[in-house]
Amino acid sequence: MNKLEIKLNSLQETEEFGIRLGKLLKSGDILCLNGDLGAGKTTMTKSIGIGLDVEEYITSPTFALINQYRGRIPVYHFDVYRLENVDELYDLGFDEYFFGNGVCIIEWAEKINKMIPKEKIVINIQKGNNENERILHIDGYGKSYEDIIKELK
């Protein structure tokens, strides 16, 4: 496991970070986003999508559980905040996404941690001292993710 902490001082820095991360992701990557309501998980996802060349407007799939987007590789955006039980994920065929050829971005990932493959990047987003400041606690699990963490440093 490889750890990194990054302080972002503005919405622009957050967006730039997300775009940079999106450019580093490749087919099969899994990204877990955790944080309180309003911490910026969806904002981060939108920026990552830009880095993955997604042209569509990314919205939170809170009620649908998953949205799919076309970019340089497919993007599968999960929001499991309203998930009532894991059977809903089985009904969606989540494993086809997790082990597929796209990038999975999972908001509220801690709710389904046991179902997510061990190799992944986990980003815990924490609100900072002002409205736009964010502190990211990033953990990379697996060799390819360690390389991404090194690139982000």
UniProtKB/TrEMBL annotation:
<keyword id="KW-0547">Nucleotide-binding</keyword>
<keyword id="KW-0819">tRNA processing</keyword>
<dbReference type="GO" id="GO:0005524">
    <property type="term" value="F:ATP binding"/>
</dbReference>
<keyword id="KW-0460">Magnesium</keyword>
<dbReference type="GO" id="GO:0005737">
    <property type="term" value="C:cytoplasm"/>
</dbReference>
<protein>
    <recommendedName>
        <fullName>tRNA threonylcarbamoyladenosine biosynthesis protein TsaE</fullName>
    </recommendedName>
</protein>
<dbReference type="InterPro" id="IPR003442">
    <property type="entry name" value="T6A_TsaE"/>
</dbReference>
<dbReference type="GO" id="GO:0046872">
    <property type="term" value="F:metal ion binding"/>
</dbReference>
<keyword id="KW-0479">Metal-binding</keyword>
<dbReference type="GO" id="GO:0002949">
    <property type="term" value="P:tRNA threonylcarbamoyladenosine modification"/>
</dbReference>
<keyword id="KW-0963">Cytoplasm</keyword>
<dbReference type="Pfam" id="PF02367">
    <property type="entry name" value="TsaE"/>
</dbReference>
<comment type="similarity">
    <text>Belongs to the TsaE family.</text>
</comment>
<keyword id="KW-0067">ATP-binding</keyword>
<dbReference type="InterPro" id="IPR027417">
    <property type="entry name" value="P-loop_NTPase"/>
</dbReference>
